[in-house]
Amino acid sequence: MRRPFVAANWKMHKTVAESVTYAHAVVPLVEAITDVDIVVAPPFLALPAMADALADSRIKVASQNVHAASHGAFTGEVSLEMLQGSGVTVVIIGHSERRQLFGETDAGVNAKTRATVGAGLTSIVCVGETLEEREANRTFDILDRQVRDGLAGLSPEQVATQVVAYEPVWAIGTGRNATPDQANEAHRHIRQQLVSQFGDSAAACRVIYGGSVKPGNVAELVGQSEVDGALVGGASLDPTSFSEIVAGSRSTAI
After folding, report:
1. Would you say the C-alpha torsion 13, 88, 148, 103 has a positive or negative sign?
2. SS3 string of 12-34?
3. Which residue is catalytic, options 95, 97, 104, 187?
4. What is d(CA 22, CA 222) in angstroms, rounded to the nearest whole number?
5. Full residue range of the structural domain in which residue 154 is found
6. pLDDT, tens only, 156-201
7. Which CATH number goes with the domain that contains 160?
8. Residue 112: its pLDDT value, please?
9. CA atoms of 219 and 215, how far apart (whole Å)
């Protein structure tokens, strides 16, 4: 079985001080949960402080984005070396908001993913269809393209250690979410694409669900055979809520 993986994506929320307060509150709430990988992705400015605050815990710190280049004239961007120096070990790549609001492409996602994996960090590569694409019965075509192009160039061994997040775009921040059956179907298809592209070892790649995950629905979602965890947005901003989601994800733990 694949070990459950739960990541909090705070997006543009919380100051540095608020982030540290959160860290101190959440650690005791999840310290007894040893069979789930837990990740928190605060804003860039809070990364070093969060890494310090969580240094003695099992919670890893993630970045919400990265630039593929190691350095250069890229105003406002952050490199992998900078992230590693701030204590980051995980990077979220290609979130639907980055694709929709900031014009990120599959090729850009691939460049960031290859750079991240090459640097020894774990990538959470986000894929998912819009409501228009789902209603046009294009969900699987979209997922195939995003997985194929986003992870191109990685070795089977590298893919096996990464994370793919399925985000039905129509469920992010809307209060709607895919039904457990819909989520499982999409996750199964993603895993089939991974195996087709990279071989049987790629089945070990964890595929997690992102889309209005809450304490009340996480157990049913993660209880599906192909769902290995959750990428959590708004419900992760409260430490108690997030700890309940982590606890609820244990339904598939070894």
Report:
1. positive
2. CCCCHHHHHHHHHHHHHHHCCCC
3. 95
4. 25
5. 5-252
6. 999 999 999 999 988 777 777 789 999 999 999 999 999 999 999 9
7. 3.20.20.70
8. 98
9. 8
| pTM score over 0.90 | yes
* Helix extents (H) in the chain: 16-30, 47-53, 80-85, 96-102, 106-118, 131-135, 139-150, 156-160, 180-198, 218-222, 239-248
62-98 tens-digit pLDDT: 999 999 999 999 999 999 999 999 999 999 999 999 9
Catalytic residue among 129, 167, 226, 244: 167
Q: Which of 153, 148, 158 is nearest to 106 (CA)?
A: 148
Active site residue 226: no
104 an active-site residue? no
Q: Say how many domains are in the chain.
A: 1
Give the 3-state DSSP-derived string for 187-202, with helices as H, strands as E and coil as C.
HHHHHHHHHHHHCHHH
Q: If DSSP codes are grouped into helix, strand and coil, which group holds residue 249?
A: helix
